[in-house]
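Try this one yourself first.
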């Protein structure tokens, strides 16, 4: 972990399917030092060896107690000294939505924020998750500062923060993922908790680059997407970012998820 530290995050939209469609090959050829995955939707026993324990990686997985739901993972070249599942909220401890590892000089977390659905219990769950997660983010930053290390929370945050973060912003103000209260909560992550949206700091104006596209219609071909996969870092780490890219497949048929990896390079140490 010297020179340039490369970190990727991607929602795999079901690891068993992604592994068959190209994730295994992508990981094998990745130059990343750390990879975070979300929406794994499988227990380790259900995944092939090249996903559970790929050569050259230390892999940690947090599955949901509800089979076929959620699930997050972290792959790292360096071996973590500590691994934590969940962030202390009883409702979400077994939900497969949060996994944190301690690497040399760096805390890395993989998070899968609920997607929500307006007017349903899913949106209420998302609101409860956000209410519980913000105080933990404050705690995490304080813990990192006290230890003299940086922290980065990688994942599918399921919120487009600004109009430049989704193509069809005019028609989504009343839809989950672009609700005013969700956007205001994400502003609090930055303004109150003191984290930085690293990709947006490197490219303040947009639009995009988007990281998720619906499978419906021509969304991918028309680049009608959402920027909801983020690397949210402590200011010290964010200041070291030197490059960011979305690893968008060349064609619709080459996709192995409805998301694309967000990869950022950081000067390190």
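Now uncover the answer:
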């Amino acid at each position: 972990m010297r020179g340039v530290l490369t970190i990727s995050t991607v929602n795999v939209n079901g690891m068993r399917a992604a592994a068959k469609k190209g994730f295994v090959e992508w990981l094998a050829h990745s130059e990343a030092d750390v990879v975070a995955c979300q929406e794994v939707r499988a227990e380790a026993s259900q995944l092939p060896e090249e996903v559970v324990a790929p050569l050259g990686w230390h892999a940690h997985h947090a599955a949901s107690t509800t089979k076929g739901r959620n699930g997050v993972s972290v792959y790292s070249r360096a071996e973590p000294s500590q691994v934590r599942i969940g962030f202390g909220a009883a409702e979400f401890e077994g939900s497969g939505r949060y996994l944190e590892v301690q690497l040399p000089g760096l805390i890395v977390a993989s998070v899968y924020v609920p997607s929500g659905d307006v007017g349903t219990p899913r949106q209420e769950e998302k609101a409860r998750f956000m209410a519980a997660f913000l105080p933990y983010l404050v705690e995490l930053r304080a813990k990192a500062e006290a230890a003299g290390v940086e922290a980065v929370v990688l994942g599918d945050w399921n919120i487009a923060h600004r109009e430049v973060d989704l193509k069809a912003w005019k028609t989504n103000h009343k839809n989950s993922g672009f609700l005013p209260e969700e956007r205001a909560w994400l502003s609090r992550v930055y303004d109150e908790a003191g984290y930085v949206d690293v990709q947006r700091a490197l490219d303040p104006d947009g639009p995009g680059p988007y990281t998720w596209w619906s499978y419906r219609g021509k969304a991918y071909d028309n680049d009608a997407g959402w920027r909801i996969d983020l690397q949210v870092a402590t200011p010290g780490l964010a200041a070291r970012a030197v490059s960011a890219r979305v690893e968008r497949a060349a064609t619709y048929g080459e996709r192995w998820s409805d998301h694309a990896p967000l990869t950022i390079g950081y000067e390190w140490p």
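Discussion: Helices lie at 15-21, 23-29, 49-52, 121-147, 180-191, 198-202, 235-238. The chain has one domain: 3-268.
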